Fold this protein.
Amino acid sequence: MEGASTKDVLSHLSLLEVQMRSQKIQSQQPSRLKELQEKAAALRRQREQLKVEIQMHRDLQKLIASLDKQRGEDEEEMEEDSENSDLLRLMARHTELKDLLLAHHTIGGYDIMKTLRGKGVCVTVATAYEGVYLERFSLEFDVKPAVRLVRHDVPPFIPLTLLIEQSCIQTDLRTLLDPLSRHLNAYTGRKQQLQLVKQLHDSVEVMESNVLCSLLVLLFKLPAENTAFLCSLDYSDACRSLPTRVSFQCHDKELPDSAEWMKIRSLLLETPVHKALTAMRKMGNIL
Amino acid sequence: MDESTKRLVQRLMRRIPSKMLKITLEKWGRLTEKQQREIEAVQSKRALTEHLLSFCEKNELGVKRLTELEMIHIIDNPNQEMWYAFRLSDPEDDARSVDLMQFKEQFKSHIRELVSQVSVKIRKHTDEAVWIRIAWGDTYSCPNHLKPTYVVHNLQTPYVFVTSLTSKKKLMLSQALVLSTRYQSLKDANLSGRKLTAIRDLLMRQYQQVFPTKYPSPLTERNQTVTNPHIEREQAKPAERRLQLACEAFGVGMLPQLQSAVYKLETKLRDHTDRTMREREEPFRCVVKFASTNLLESLKNCASSGIASTPVTPLLSSIPLKGKNYFVITENGPGPSSQMS
C-alpha cells in the first residue's frame, strides 16, 4: 500500500476503509508483516522508476550536446540508438528552449508563455533605464486561427495599432516587439528622467509636461539678478530618450545666443536632462 | 449686480457644500483676508450667500471671476457630475506634437467660429489634464453660465471626457476638438459614469492588470475566511485558478470604481418551456443593468468565488478590456453565439 496521498479524497477514503478492515483481523503481527512486505515492494518499484528517469535524463543531456555539435557542422547522420530517439530529440529541444527562455528573462529580454486558456501566448516586454529595471508591459495574443492581439497594458499614447499595422505578426512576432520595445523603453526613460528632475532639482520648476513625456518646459533661476530663464525640450522622436530640439526664452533677448548657452544647448541635446542639470548647477550656470 | 450674476452666485452656493467652501474660496483667492475670515465664521448657507454677494459687489467681481470659482470646485470634485467618454480616432501626423499653447489657441478660435456667442475657459491641471469650461450662447443670447459644459482631455491621448450636453452642441464641440487636436473624428466610447476618476483610470489603464507569467509574484488577495480546513485543502487548486482568471480579467488592487453597466439585448428569447415565445421571429428586446458601488470589484468577486463561471465570459470581461459600460448585443447567425458591439 502506498503512503497516504492527501490530495485525492477517494483514495483517502479507501485508505480509511482498508485500515478499518485490517483492524478487524485477529492477530496484529501477521498483518503488520504483510504491511511491511508490501511497503518494501512499493519502494523497490519506486527505485526502478527513478533509475529509468535518471537514465533518460542522461540520454537527454547527451542528445542536447550532440544537437549543439550538429548545428556547428554540416550534414551529419544522427545515430538511431533507440526507438525513442525522436521523442528524446523533442525533449532535448524542449529543455534547450526552456533554458534559453530563462536566460532571456535574466538579461531582460522578452518573456513569452502560454496563456491559461491554452489558446495563445503572453509576451512581456521589460524596460530599463540607466541600469535600473522600470515597468513591464504585457501583450496577450491568440494564435489560432491567426495571430491576433487580445489584450495588453500598453498605455494609449503609444501608437500600438499603428505598429501592429506596420509589422507582420503572422510570420515573425519580433517585427512588432522590437519597435514596440524601442518606443516603450524610450518612454519609460523619459518618464524616469522627469521623475529624477523633480526629485533632485528643487530649484528648477517643471512648467509643462505631458503624459507621453515628449515635451518638457523648465524654468531656471539664473544666479545673476535672480532672472528667470525658460527652457523647452522637445522629444519628437518617440524612440529616443534624448531631446531633438532645445529652445530658450528669456527677457534678455541676447542671452540665449551667448556662447555659454550655446554650449548648454548642446549639453542638453546629448546628456539626460537630470545629469545635465547637475552639471549646470555645478558650473554655476543656474541656481 | 445684475440678475444673472446673482443667480450664478446662488447656484454656486447650492452646489458647493459648506465644508468645501473654505478651501475653494482660499484657492480662488479673490477675497481679502478679512472677508475670508468673515465668511468662515458664518454657518447657514443663506447667510453665506448673502455675504458672498456683498463681497462680490464690493470687490467688483463679475461673472468671469465667479466662473473661475466654479471651475476650481469642479476640478477638485469631479465625481459629482455625469461624465461621458469619447474617443478620437485617426490622428494626423502632427497630432503627437500638439502642445498646450497650440491646443488652447486652436480650440478657442474654432469654437468661436462655430458658436457665435460662447465663453471658453481653459486650465491645465497638475496631472497634465486640460480642463475646458464652455458656456453656450447663440446669435440671440449671451452665454448661459448656469448650464456650462466641462471637457477634460489629456494631450497625446485619444480620450475626451464631457459632462452632459445636447446633440447639437455635441456636434459643434466635436468639430472644434477634432480640429484642435489634429485627429479626424470623435466617436462615442460607450462609457459613462459619475466618477470621472473611475472612467478615466479605466480607459488610461491606470490600474494594475494581471497577465499570465512564469515568474509570478504571489497574488496577495486570498479569501481570508477559513471555513473548514478540509474544504480549503480540497478546493485550493480550483480556487487558485479561479482567482488567477478573475484577476486576469479584471485586475488587482484598487480597481476603477465603475458604478454601472448596461446591456441592451436584441436577441431571441431561448426558453424551452414557452413555445409561443420561442417561435417568435422578432428579437426579444430587453435592457439589463448592473449597478454597484464598485462594479468591477463585485464582478471579480463573483468570478473568484465561483458564482460566475471561469474563464470569465467575454460579456463581463469586455467592460475593462474594451473600456465600455454600454453594450448592444444582437443575434448573429445560428447557434448560441451572439455578436457584441
